[in-house]
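Collaboration report, partner site 2.

Our partner group contributed sequences for two proteins of shared interest, and the home lab folded both. The records are reproduced in the order in which they were received, starting with the first partner submission.
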Amino acid sequence: MPADRDGARHRAAVLADAVGQLDAPSDPQGVEDHLALIEVVSHVEADARSLLRDAVTSARSAGATWSEVGRTLGMTKQAAQKRFATQGTPLRPGVGEGERLLGPVTVFDEMGELALAGQYGWHGVERGAGHHRVVRSATKWEHARVSMLSRSRVEAMRVDGWQVISSEFPYVYLKRDLGTPALTEPRR
């Protein structure tokens, strides 16, 4: 198990470094410093719980079973399902005029579906678990999904005219108006 201990030490060092970048006292001396450190670490813990929920939702969207999620977390399938099953991001109810729900989709096919919809002027405005809400415009759109860990890439894309649709661990979804006329949709 030395590799496990090395991994735990590495994770602890990375977290300590991250906490140090969050205005936490780097060398706590008195009670006030220690309490300030507790406050920052408490926020990090809450953020980590939120990231874990998002990671489970993402894994389920990618096709992971509850048994696989449970095994990865060291719990039973039932415990994983009880803890995370209701944590999906719902879309706001109802579909308005000029809106559609694109889905159900998974991480494997959602970008292809958005690319096709974008050719007909549909562009994402909201993302939910397994669905995208899209609205129609007269121009073509392109969509992108980038790892939220690539902050510099996301910022560079925003400078190039991309707009953020949503940000859910581990992805940021973006769109950009191509400014060319949208294709006419085939009749059904």
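Second partner submission, folded after the first:
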Amino acid sequence: MRYFISSLALIFMVGTSRAQLVVTSSSFKDGGMIPSKYSCEGTEVSPPLNISNIPSAAKSLALIVHDPDAPMKGGFTHWVVWNIDVKGYLKEGFKNANEGLNSAKQVGYKGMCPPSGTHHYHFKVYALDEMLELDQNNDKESLEKRMQGHILDEGELIGLYKKSQK
């Protein structure tokens, strides 16, 4: 009887687990090097992203691109975006009326530019149960606070970047 209940519990847990958002890019693989095109050494446009396994209840997506390796307290945030369409595709150079402040206090995408070594860039996507009312003066922390209680799922793509030795 004990074996039967344990097996039933396992089947129930596996059967009800949700699929995590999958974040990919046609420009780099998870754990791979990000092309310089998307950095301060290139045209500094955002890379294309594809998000799949989006919950059917999602009303919008949000994205935070963050470098925890940056030599400043809390790391460096490169991009903050919300109210992204749930179709889940951001083309290269994506722009949106719902972009907030990066750590350089600029609205929009800021390309990778590590002062030394190889840094990890986390492209973290959130599926939300609502559209968010925020203005462009919001940053990573205020977006994270506003999303609390509205995150249906999340996923992440991590890319690496090191400046060339010029």
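Feedback sent to the partner group on the second submission included the following. The two ends are 69 Å apart (CA to CA). Confidence is low (pLDDT under 50) at residues 2-17.
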